[in-house]
């Protein structure tokens, strides 16, 4: 692995576990097993630039989990509930670390590090775009898919925080069940809408042929 890759990977892990303010250059160098000078050689912007790259990389990896976790399930609602349960199990099994550095860093530095806040916003917009495309491909209309993507991301980030504080998977199970019910409702509503549209088209055809 190249030195710059080790540095950004170490930064992503440190951001996940302890946040931005608590992560110093010396600690980062030790975690990356790289001389302090090499950090500035590869990243002239120092800690802020390294954090920005790490957030983008982490964000790109996290959104790839969406199809990985949900594709095995024909029933999207069943997949959502299972995915949230798995996230809770993973947190418990790894000692309740913060599972998403993007969310934790955003909450920590949004008002004091505008450049990093914008990086986090960039990552979140990418999540929304890719999530919307995924759920559209799974049968939701684009507006419903965008709404559901926002709901999934908000529930997941909230569950991370609550589970870490309470030391319980309960927030994940509650969020998963609620989102499963929501996507079933969306699917029913859209199915009804399609049937009504088809009926209207048939009616127009009958009038035109009479």
Topology:
Layout: H1 3-18, H2 25-32, H3 36-42, H4 46-63, H5 65-70, H6 76-93, H7 101-109, H8 114-137, H9 142-166, H10 170-209
Helix pairs in contact: 1-2, 1-4, 1-7, 4-8, 6-10, 7-8, 8-9, 9-10
Tell me about this structure:
The chain has 210 residues and is mainly α. It has two domains: 3-58, Arc Repressor Mutant, subunit A (Orthogonal Bundle), CATH 1.10.10; 64-198, Tetracycline Repressor, domain 2 (Orthogonal Bundle), CATH 1.10.357.10. The protein contains ten helices and no strands. The longest helix is centred in the C-terminal third of the chain and has 40 residues, at 170-209. Residues 192-203 have low confidence and may be disordered.
